[in-house]
Here is the input.
Amino acid sequence: MSVVPTKYWSKLDDGRIQCDVCPRYCKLREGQRGLCFVRARQNDQIVLTTYGRSSGFCVDPIEKKPLNHFLPGTPVLSFGTAGCNLTCSFCQNHDISKSREFDKLQSQASPEMIAEAAVKSGCRSVAYTYNDPVIFLEYAVDVAKACHERGIKNVAVSAGYICEEPRAEFFQHMDAANIDLKAFTQEFYRKLCSADLAVVLETLKYLKHETDVWFEITDLLIPDENDSEHEIEEMTQWVMENLGPDVPIHFTAFHPDWKMLDKERTPPDTLIRARNIALKNGLRYVYTGNIHHKPTQSTYCHNCDHMLIGRDWHELSDWNLDFGGNHLSDCRSCGSQLAGIFEEKPGDWGRKRVPLKFRTPQSDSAMTSQ
Here is the structure.
């Protein structure tokens, strides 16, 4: 385990030190850890205790992040660490994000090793995911720099719960992001996540208006918690008014997990209803997730309604785009531009997932497939 010092903290008058990475503002005495578990007070400073250590690496389809308008069909090298700065009762990665055991962190890899592994495995990007990367910001930023040096793009999968100054540093090194907008009521965030909705909305506005990061939004719809027509109306109207029509939204199906085993799975009709509300409110690219339903997982031209990219789960089929250069693509039917970041041809990775195992940093070969 590698421990590195951090810079986002401040000393309090009572002798405690406050971590200033996220709005939880954990106030720590010597030897204590923050709620995220990976940031701790040691030697009168806040340190990151998981630098260079991961819960595992896997090559995924980029659509799994989910990102539908960012290098479609390409593989992405995904990894996370342990811990999280939210307390979501419905967490679907709880074995990682809720972990308090460092034996979950079996893979050791330097930033340069990860960049090299991405190149060797044919990945176009690296994703910081599985748990929220804002809590391992220093490691993520160093990996992102190493990746950019090798021509590899960076993807953040995050709940967007981060303070202003570290937010600017973190997203400065990201090319794309998926932000988990878990609900559109403060009650939901307070009761089920111990967090503040307003912070997430500020992150979304920041990404749209102050960065060039391509981002998409995910909303996991949980029966009787955040799936009412009224809430979907309010959320999609807010997105339209504050972010515009071109930000894709993914309404995904909940399955019973962690502390919400008593809930039923989200019916497909709930996702389709939410999609229809979003489209009615002017959003152009709205998807369903965690179900097999090509009509609502495909991308259509906002002008002529021609199918541009056919999808079923994470598998691409149709491709009706003309590449215009500079990562831009146009509808072959009417010439209207599709928002996003594209290449001349889609990737052919498909839906497969390939776990990677890193050897020791001293090994001649940095990674092997499992």
Notes: The longest strand covers residues 214-221. The two ends are 23 Å apart (CA to CA). Residues 96-105, 361-365 have pLDDT under 50 and may be disordered. The longest helix spans residues 229-243.
